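tRNA uridine(34) hydroxylase
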Amino acid sequence: MTVTVAALYRFAPFDDPAALRAPLLDLCAARGIRGTLLLAREGINGTIAGSAAAVAAVIAHIRALPGCADLDVKYSAAAAMPFGRLKVRLKTEIVTMKVPGLDPAREAGATVAPADWNALVDDPGTVVIDTRNDFEIGYGSFAGAVNPRTKSFGDFPAWWRDHAAEFAGKRVAMFCTGGIRCEKSTAFLKGEGVADVVHLKGGILAYLEQVPEAESRWHGSCFVFDERVSVGHGLVEVGDARDPS
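Structure:
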């Protein structure tokens, strides 16, 4: 039986994320869902897997939470359950950047649809930055994208401050796996005084799903945080296939 996988996130103001945990955990457990969900005052993030009906029930529950009607979800499939267990955890941040005062729900940069992304990659006046860590980038990335060579997303602010002068006067276009790190990093850059900063809507996963391989600027596969390891165009499971280029 094919397993439905849903990568999801939403920056939303949760006054009491702890109160949201038990009902969400109970629903996931009752429906046989596995994966990881993170709850924080800034919103929700995670990837879950199960039957199509079970995943749909959990997504409907999350969309009913305050500020989550527009929950960002990217669906894919797996031949077998890609998670060993279920975790619903409370965190300080749903994606750790360690920059106080950021509000991606209000301050993130504009989005660029996957269909329009190639024009940015091809534009010499645009600097395209991969916000993922160096390990993930080893599986694949967009042609010509800057690799900050970070070990974790929390290293990105220091990297940017060390290199910001190199990108002065250019449009900055950023991308990540599903979009969450981009929303936070564009909010960070705007706070650093960068006026023209955008990010790939839905991240690499949306691009690989929507853009035909013949037109793609993507090289390699995309690392995902489950036992499939990585996916390719059409979100087809690739496995542990690092980019040789």
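The radius of gyration is 18 Å.
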